[in-house]
Amino acid sequence: MRRYLPILDWGRSYNRASLTSDLIAAVIVTIMLIPQSLAYALLAGLPPEAGIYASIAPILLYAVFGTSRALAVGPVAVVSLMTAAAVGEVAAEGTAGYASAALTLAALSGGILMLLGLLRLGFIANFLSHPVISGFITASGLLIATSQLKHILGIDAGGRTLPEMLAGLWRHLGETNPVTLVIGICATAFLFWARRRLRPALARLGTPPVLADVLTKAGPVAAVVVTTLAVRLFDLDARGVAVVGVVPQSLPPFTLPGLSPELIGRLALPALLISIIGFVESISVAQTLAAKRRQRIDPDQELIGLGAANLGAAFTGGYPVTGGFARSVVNFDAGAETPAAGAFTAIGLAIAAVALTPLLHDLPTATLAATIIVAVLGLVDLSILKKTWAYSRADFTAVSATIAVTLLVGVEAGVASGVGLSVLMHLYKASRPHVAEVGLVPGTQHFRNINRHDVVTSERLLTLRVDESLFFVNARVLEDLIQRRVTEGCAITDVVLMCSAVNAVDYSALESLEAINQRLRDMGVGLHLSEVKGPVMDRLAATALIRELNGRVFLSQYDAWAALSKNRAAQA
Amino acid sequence: MRRYLPILDWGRSYNRASLTSDLIAAVIVTIMLIPQSLAYALLAGLPPEAGIYASIAPILLYAVFGTSRALAVGPVAVVSLMTAAAVGEVAAEGTAGYASAALTLAALSGGILMLLGLLRLGFIANFLSHPVISGFITASGLLIATSQLKHILGIDAGGRTLPEMLAGLWRHLGETNPVTLVIGICATAFLFWARRRLRPALARLGTPPVLADVLTKAGPVAAVVVTTLAVRLFDLDARGVAVVGVVPQSLPPFTLPGLSPELIGRLALPALLISIIGFVESISVAQTLAAKRRQRIDPDQELIGLGAANLGAAFTGGYPVTGGFARSVVNFDAGAETPAAGAFTAIGLAIAAVALTPLLHDLPTATLAATIIVAVLGLVDLSILKKTWAYSRADFTAVSATIAVTLLVGVEAGVASGVGLSVLMHLYKASRPHVAEVGLVPGTQHFRNINRHDVVTSERLLTLRVDESLFFVNARVLEDLIQRRVTEGCAITDVVLMCSAVNAVDYSALESLEAINQRLRDMGVGLHLSEVKGPVMDRLAATALIRELNGRVFLSQYDAWAALSKNRAAQA
Fold first, then answer.
1. Nearest CA to B39 among B220, B204, B237?
2. Inter-chain CB proximity A284 and B431 less than 8 Å
3. Cβ contacts of residue B61 below 8 Å, gap of 6+?
4. Which H or E run contains B440?
5. Which residues of A touch B503 (CB under 8 A)?
6. Which SS3 state, helix, strand or coil, does residue A69 take?
7. Contact status, residue A348 vs residue A106, Cβ threshold 8 Å
8. What three-state secondary structure class fits B158?
9. Å from B104 to nearest chain A CA?
10. Helix, strand or coil, per DSSP, at residue A185
11. Nearest CB to B487 within list A295, A388, A480
12. Could A123 and B284 be called an inter-chain contact, meaning their C-beta atoms sit closer than 8 Å?
C-alpha cells in the first residue's frame, strides 16, 4: 500500500518545521508559475487559463502518488510544443475541438504512463539515448523560440517546421505592429538581463542572497506587471497590441476528454511520445534533486504519479503535463521538503485563478512570448554536437539527425528517427565485436592481445578472446572469422574461444557455435572453450554443442594452454 | 581483380581430373533439376519453362562471380513462395504482367544484392536471427505444402494465408477430380517411400552405394516419367487431369524487366526481403560445404555472385534465384570440384529446354505438386519450438511469433515481425544488465559475486561488477541501481565500479556515469573505477567524467580494495 501511495510515507512524519519550509517554497513557486503557465498555454495553442488549470489538479495528484519530494509538475515547454504539433493535426487552433483534443491527449498520456507504471515497463524510456534527448530538446527550443517571434512582431504567421515558420515570418514581416515590437523587445531584453545580471547587481547593492534569488525569479512577474500597466495606461490595445483578453474567473472546471476511437487512433502515437519524453525529462530532474538529499526515486512509481497527474489534467481543463526542470529547481532551492509544498502551490494558483485573472486582461501576448523565448533558449545547447563529435561519431550522427529531422520535418519524426538510428547503430556496432587473438604473457598465467603485448603463441593453437556477448547480429561474424583464420593458418590444429567477456549466448549464437564446431571437425581441427561464465555455462551445459564439442571446456585459459601444449608435445 | 572474379582463381589450375568430376556431377544435378525447376515455377505461379530458364544464366553467372565451389544456384522453394506472394500483389497469375513483374523482382533483388556486396553491407543479413529464419522456413514449408494440395485434388482454390487456403480447399472439395487425386496420392507416396526407403532397399539388393544414391535422387524423375506415360497411354487429360501443356522449345529468351517507378515502389520491400532470405540460405549452405574441404567463402563477394545470378535471371525469362540447399548438396556429393560443374549443368539444362520440353506436355501438375510437397516437408522442423523453449524463452517467442505471423498474415509480415521482435527482446535483455556485488576471496586477489561465494566485504565500500557494455538502454538502470544501494546502505563511503566486462561506453552511458558521479558527490560518497579496458579508457580519458571524478581509477580491483581500505583505516 505504501509503495503505491508514497504520501503515507512522508505524511506520517509531517511537522511544523516542514510546514513552514513548504509554505515559503509554495509562495515563491506560485509567483513564478502564474506567467509561466499562461505562456506555455499560449505555446500549446490553448487559452491562457488552460495553463493555470494544468498546474492545479496535476500537482495535487502527484503529491499523493509521486516519489520525488521536490518535483513540481505542470506544463513545460517541450511538452507544450508537442501538444501543439499533435493537436494541430486533428483540429484547428482556437476551436472547441482543439481544446477537447488536448484533453484527450492528456488522458491518453495519463493512461499510457499509468499502464507502463503498473506493468513496470519504465525501461522503454531507455530507448531514448541521451544524445537523442539532447538533440531533441535543443531542436525543440529553437522551434519554440522561432514560433514565438510572431507574437513579438505582432503578426499572424504559422508553420510547424523551421523553414515553414521562417517563410511565414518573412511573408508577413511588413505587417509588423511597431508598438507590439517595442514591448516584445523591451520585455525580452529585460528578461535576459534579469536572468544574467539581476542577482549580481542586487548582491552588489547588499541584498541578502535569498531575497536576491526571489527577486530574480520574479523577473517575469515584473515584466508582466509593467507591460500590463503600460497597455492599460496608454490604451495600447487600441493600437493593435494583442492582449490575453478575458480569462474566466473560476476554479478548474470538470471536463470530460473525448474518447472516440478515431481521435484515439490519431493521438495514440503522439501521446506515447509525449509520455516518454515527459517521463525522461521528469525522472532526470527528480533523481538529480533526490540525490542532493540522499533520497530515492522509484521510476515505476514515478510513472504512476505522472500518469495520475495527466489524468487529473484531462478532467480539469488542462493538457499534458510533466515534472518541469525550472519549477522543480526553484521549488527545491526555495526549501520545499515534501510534496505538500506542491499542494500549497496548487492552492495559491487556485486563488490566482479566481482572484487575479481579471488583472490579466491587458497582459500583452508579446510579454508572454518573451518569457517563453528567454526560458527555452536556456534549453538550446549546441555544444552537444561538439561533445559527441569528440567522443563518438555514432552518437554525433544520432544527435545531428535528431536535430535536423526535428527542425525540418517535425517533433514526432525527429524523436522517431533518433530512436531508430540509435538502435541501428548499436546493432551495427554489436555486429562487429572486438575479437582479439591472445597469447601467454611469459612468466605469468595471463593472456593478452598479440597485437598489443609481447606474448608467446603457437602456430598450432589459435586462441580468440571475444569481447562481446554472442547473439544473432554477431554470431555469423564469428563463423566467418574463424573459418578465415583456420583456412589461412594451415598448421592450426586447435581453436580455443576464451569467453571471459561473453555475458550471454543466445540461440542464434549457439547454433553458430555448433556450426563452427561441425566445420572445424570437418577440417580436423579441435574446438575448445575457456573461462565460460557460470550463468552462460549453466545454459550451454544441456546443449548439443557441449555434448558434441570436438574438444574440451577449460576453466581457465592457462589450463587450456597447458593441456593443449602437452597434447601437442605428446603428438610430436 | 581476382577478388571480384574468383573464376580467375580456380580457372587457372583447372585440369582433366577436375573436368571429369565436374562432368559427372553436372549430369546428376541436371537430371534432378528438370522436374524440380518445373515444380518451383509452378509454385511461383509462373509457366514451367521459367523454372528451367532461371537455372541456366544464373548458374553461369554465379560460376564467374561466386566464391563457393559447390553451390548450385537456381529457383528454391521459399524464394518461389515469396515471389508468388510479392508478384501476386501487383498482377494476376497467368497474365503477362505477372511474368514481367517476376522479372522486375529478380532485377531488383539482383541490384540490391550487388549493391550490398559492393558496399560491403552483408552484415544486415545478421539482423535475421537463427530462430526467425528457422521459424520462417518451417512456416513457409507448411504454406507451400498446403498451397499444393489443390493440384493433388485437381481443384481450383486460392488464398495466401493458411486459413484462407484451408477455407478455399474446403469450399471446393466437392469438385475433386478422382483421377488426379489417384495420380497425386500415388506420386506423393512413391516419393516419400523413395526418399526414406529406396536407398536401404537398393543396398540390400547389393547395389553399389554411389549408384543407389543416384537412383534415389532420380526418384522424382521416375515419378515424372511414369505419370506422364500414364496420361499419354490412357488419355487421362481428357478425363480432367491437369497437365503442364505446351512448353516452348527454346533456349532462354532475352527479356527486359519492366522498371516503372510504380512497380519498383511496390516490389522494393519484397525484393529486399527475398534478397536477404536468399542470401542467408545460400551463405549457410556454402559455408557448410566449404568447411568440408577447408575452403573459404567471402560473404561480400557472395552477395555480388548472387546479385549477378539474379540479374541474369531477370534478363533471361527467369525469376529470383538463390543457392539451394538440396541441389548444392547433391552437386557436392556427386563430386563437383569447381563452379565449372555448374556451367555444365547449365548446358545440360539448355539441351533439355530445347530437346526435352515436348515430352513434358502430358506431365500432370499433380506430380509436380507431389515433388514440391515431399521436398518442402523436409524443411518443416517444429522441433525448433522445443529446442528454443528449452534454451531461451526469448528465442522461443521469436520463433513462435514468426511461425504464427507467417502462417496467419503472410510471408513478409512474418519476417518483419520476427526481426522486430528479436531486436526488441535483445534491447530488453541488454536493458537489464547483470550487475554483481563483489567481494574479496580471502587469501587471493580475486573478487567474486557475494551471492555465489564466501567473500570479504566492507559495509563502507560497495563494489559493483557490471557484466555488460554500458549504452543507452542500460545507462539509466545503473543510475537507479547505485542510487538505491547507496541510499539503503547508509554507511557506504565509496563505490567502485569494476569494469572488466565493459567492452564499450557510449555517450549516454558516459553522461549517466557523470550524473552518478555528481549525485554521489552530493551524498558525500566517492566514485571509483577499476579494471577499465584499454580501448574504453582511451575514450574516457579526455572526458569530464575522469577530470571531475570524485575518486580514482584503479588498474586492478585489488588495488582499489587495498587503497580504499587503507584510506578507511587512516580515517578511523
1. B220
2. no
3. B305, B308, B309, B311, B312
4. strand B435-440
5. 433-434, 467-468, 501
6. coil
7. no
8. coil
9. 29
10. helix
11. A295
12. no
The grid cell for A512 is: 553458430
Which among B287, B427, B474 has CB closest to A483?
A: B287
Which cell numbers hold the place of A6?
508514497
What separation in angstroms does the CA of A254 have from each of A74, A251, A311, A318?
18, 9, 12, 10
A195-230 confidence digits (pLDDT tens): 888 888 888 888 888 788 778 877 888 899 999 999
User: B501 contacts in A (CB within 8 Å)?
Assistant: 500-501, 503
Distance between the two ends of chain A, CA-based, in angstroms? Answer: 72
- Which residue reads 476511437 in cell numbers? A261
CA-CA distance, B301 to B303, in Å (whole number)?
A: 5
**A128 contacts B426? CB cut-off 8 A:** no
Return the C-alpha cell found at B238: 481428357
Q: Which residues of A448-479 are buried (b: 16+ CB within 10 A; e: fewer)?
A: beeeeeebeebebbbbbbbbbbbbbbbbbbbb
CA–CA dist B463, B494 (Å, integer): 8
Per-residue DSSP letter, B126: G
Are A503 and B467 an interchain contact pair (Cβ–Cβ within 8 Å)?
yes
Beta strands B526-530; B494-498: pairing state: parallel
Q: Do residue B518 and residue A288 have CB atoms under 8 angstroms apart? A: yes
Please provide the distance, in angstroms rounded to a whole number, between the alpha carbons at the two ends of chain B: 73
DSSP type of residue A456 = B
CA atoms of B368 and B183, how far apart (whole Å): 11
Question: Could you tell me the three cell numbers for A490?
Answer: 594451415
Distance, in angstroms, between A322 CA and closest chain B CA? Answer: 19
Per the CB < 8 A criterion, the answer to whether A221 and A159 are in contact is no
Residue B327 has pLDDT above 60, yes or no: yes
Q: How high is the pLDDT of residue A549? A: 94
Residue B49 and residue B350: Cα distance in Å, rounded?
11
Pairing of strands A526-530, A553-554: parallel
Cβ neighbourhood burial of A131 (10 Å; 0-12, 13-18, 19+): buried
CA-nearest of A299, A295, A269, A271 to A283 is A299
Separation CA A487–CA A480 (nearest Å)? 11
Residue B568 has a pLDDT of 53
pLDDT band at A245 (very low <50, low <70, confident <90, very high): confident
Q: How far is CA B528 from CA B197, B523, B561, in A?
A: 69, 15, 11
Tens digits of residue pLDDT in A338-347: 888 999 999 9
**pLDDT tens across B253-303, in order?**
999 898 889 999 899 999 999 999 999 889 888 888 887 777 778 888 999
Measured between alpha carbons, how far is B232 from B243 in angstroms, rounded to an integer? 10
Residues of A in Cβ contact (< 8 Å) with B479: 287
- Test A476 with B126 for CB contact under 8 angstroms: yes
Residues of A in contact with B498 (CB under 8 A): none
**Between these two residues, A241 and B216, which has the higher pLDDT value?**
A241
- What is the pTM for the complete model shown? 0.76
Amino acid of residue B284:
S
Interval A416-423 mean pLDDT: 87
Tell if the CB–CB gap between B504 and A475 is shorter than 8 Å: no
Q: Which of B472, B521, B546 to mutate to test the interface with A (most CBs of A within 10 A)?
A: B472
Q: For residues A14 and A338, is the Cβ–Cβ distance under 8 A?
A: yes
**B509/B503 Cα distance (integer angstroms):** 12
User: Which contacts (CB < 8 Å, 24+ apart) does range A437-441 have?
Assistant: A437/A462, A437/A463, A437/A464, A437/A465, A437/A485, A438/A463, A438/A464, A438/A465, A438/A498, A438/A557, A439/A463, A440/A558, A440/A561
